[in-house]
Design goal:
Helices cover 76% and strands 0% of the residues. The protein is an all-alpha fold.
Length: 264
């Protein structure tokens, strides 16, 4: 049953990581519901790498083009600068507040529930009243607007806010259209999540024992496969239907979690 739970949590991680519904909150809640014991959070840290590698695999051609062109291609350097500027605020905030977030906020189901509801409401408001988009290609996002999205990503330190949700909403506020905002969120995910993984790996290294290797491997593969499968359909769905369905899901999830709090 431990391996089945590991697979289910891995699938959940991969499916929710790039949707604006907070993978961290889903894993925290699901782990408690399943009674899953994750000493030091080592399992959660390692399966997140599966999601990171999935998005890097999907955009491997773009990554190769940028890396190979840094010395000669102006567009490649501008793209790299855009992503770096967008990531810096979250990386700085994470370095300053990571301990508080992990020891205080992650332990509060009420914080998660309120963040879910608030995030859903904000998403609905932005969907309804957002400024007219002027950026339709995520790769052409101006550096100043990338910084604005990066500042919004800082909010994702609060469990339940969602890294992808905060960057997508930030992108729409910075006048990116919906698909461009979603894709820009993927670009920011690669360095941001990689840096977070390295930091967290150092914290949990003592809990990475050989006895848990198969369990972690199952969750890792499940996260990689499910993340790789969800990204393209997500972009297609956003083009057709926008983000309102995810907003309503967030509100319903948050309300349900608040209702269940008295029962523990």
């Amino acid at each position: 049953m431990t391996y089945v739970t590991a697979a289910l949590l891995g699938i959940l991680q991969g499916l929710t990581e790039f949707l604006p519904i907070s993978s961290t909150a889903h894993l925290l809640v699901a782990g408690r519901l399943f009674g899953y014991d994750d000493p030091g959070g080592a399992f959660t840290v390692m399966i997140q790498l599966g999601s990171v590698l999935a998005i890097m695999w999907l955009y491997r051609a773009k990554i190769a083009t940028v890396v190979s062109g840094l010395g000669t291609d102006v567009d490649a350097r501008r793209f790299a600068l855009m992503v770096i500027v967008g990531c810096l605020p979250a990386l700085a905030a994470g370095a300053l507040f990571a301990d508080y977030v992990q020891t205080v906020l992650y332990e509060s189901a009420r914080v998660i529930a309120v963040a879910f509801i608030a995030g859903g409401l904000v998403m609905l408001v932005v969907e309804r009243f957002r400024p007219s988009p002027i950026v339709f290609d995520a790769e052409r996002t101006p550096v100043g607007r990338a910084l604005g999205v990066g500042l919004c990503q800082v909010l994702a330190l609060v469990p339940g806010v969602s890294r992808s949700g905060s960057t997508i909403v930030g992108g729409m506020l910075m006048r990116l259209d919906r698909p461009a905002a979603a894709e820009f969120s993927f670009f920011l995910a690669m360095p941001t999540m990689t840096a977070a993984f390295v930091y967290e790996l150092v914290q949990v290294r003592e809990f990475l024992t050989g006895a848990r290797a198969l369990e972690i491997a199952i969750g890792f593969v499940a996260a990689f496969v499910s993340a790789a499968l969800v990204v393209r359909p997500f972009l297609q769905f956003v083009r057709r239907s926008g983000f309102a369905p995810f907003a309503w899901y967030r509100i319903a999830f948050g309300l349900a979690l608040l209702a269940l709090l008295p029962a523990g």
